[in-house]
Amino acid sequence: MPEDDLGNDDLVKHWAPRVPLNETLPARLLRARDALMQFYRPLFKNAGVTEAQWRILRSLYEETSVEPQVLSKRAFMQPPNVSRVLRELVDLGLAKRLVAKRDKRRAPVALTPKGREVCAEIGQKIEEKATLLAAETDQDVIQELHRLLKIVIEFPDQHRALLDTAESDKNAD
Length: 173
Fold this sequence. Notes:
Helix content: 55-70%
CATH architecture of the domain at 22-130: Orthogonal Bundle
Radius of gyration: 22 Å
CATH superfamily of the domain at 22-130: Winged helix-like DNA-binding domain superfamily/Winged helix DNA-binding domain
Strand order of the largest sheet: 1-2
Number of strands: 2
Shape: globular
Largest sheet: 2 strands, antiparallel
CATH class of the domain at 22-130: Mainly Alpha
Distance between the termini: 24 Å
């Protein structure tokens, strides 16, 4: 039987990728996100918050209070990460947990006045930076990028059967 590089005698499954990893759509989207975030990371660092904390702050800024499970969707984060980031924001004095009047099991979260101030400061700087970037970028390119990203975002709804296949493949392992 053939051996793998680790000296295992077991037969190793082989796969020949059609394209290099760095040319796959998920990898390119991650690189694009990272490229764009390079313009904004210094703003977060100067304000003493992380990117994840910013996403939660920004989501909370739009409403008086929000349930953590709603924040998870709005901030594009898994629920355990939302819980961790909320603890950090509470410790920093930027957010506070509320007690729901009707259902004591619910735990909505809100910004503190300090959190609103920090969010507004970062938000204004982000919008200034975005305005400068947009002024230096062909608007047709930006419009096309938005159009294409909308298509990608709608992939799960448009290709539901493939999602079901991926789920059944996962359960088969």
